[in-house]
Amino acid sequence: MTITQRLLLIACLVLPFAACKQNDDAVVDTGPQVLVAPAKDDDAGWRGYLQAVALQNMGTVSNSPFLYYLPPESDPEFEAKFQRQVESATTALARGIVGNNMLAFGSSASARMADLIEAAFKDVPPDTMKGVRVLFIGDAADDARVRAAATPAGVDYVFVEAK
């Protein structure tokens, strides 16, 4: 083996290890970011907050989450938007949601979102949504009634207090 061949062999062996050298200035991941709920009337802020909280709580779900959002109650069209979301969620649940999916519900109007969830889950047969994660982002005062409405369907229920 010639010197040139040896040098090429050494270069081939050393180069992959040199390429793996890590940057000492890399940012250290300190875990999930603590999210803070926006002001009650911040519609755009709440939309972004719902998406961010949903992504943090995906667990083992690999499909894109279904997001149900209500605008602030100060919105002049709040009641119409509420009725459309109730209809949308009720229709989706009536069709059936298969496992490995997530339904995320959130709003600054937490009590009204809880009303929406109760209405949507009212006619869902027991244990028909195994493997489906339901995320409720709202006030702690509404957690118990949302849990009572959703868990009979067999869902993996997760509550995140909006604070």
Description:
This protein is of the alpha/beta class and 163 residues long. The chain has one domain (28-161): Rossmann fold (3-Layer(aba) Sandwich), CATH 3.40.50. It contains five helices and four strands, in the order ααβαβαβαβ. The protein has helices at 3-19, 43-56, 78-95, 110-121, 140-150; strands at 66-70, 101-107, 132-138, 156-161. A four-stranded parallel sheet has the order 1-2-3-4, sandwiched between helices. The longest helix has 18 residues, at 78-95. It starts with a helix and ends with a strand. The model is unreliable at 12-21 (pLDDT under 50).
What structural keywords apply?
163 residues, alpha/beta, Rossmann fold, 4-stranded parallel β-sheet, 4 strands
Strand order of the largest sheet: 1-2-3-4
Globular, elongated, flat, extended or rod-shaped: what is the shape? Answer: globular
Number of strands: 4
Structural class: alpha/beta
**Span from first to last CA?**
70 Å
Strand content: 15-25%
| CATH topology term | Rossmann fold
Count of runs of 4 or more consecutive helical residues: 5
Give the topology.
Layout: H1 3-19, H2 43-56, E1 66-70, H3 78-95, E2 101-107, H4 110-121, E3 132-138, H5 140-150, E4 156-161
Parallel strand pairs: 1-2, 2-3, 3-4
Describe what is shown at a glance.
With 163 residues, this protein is an alpha/beta fold.
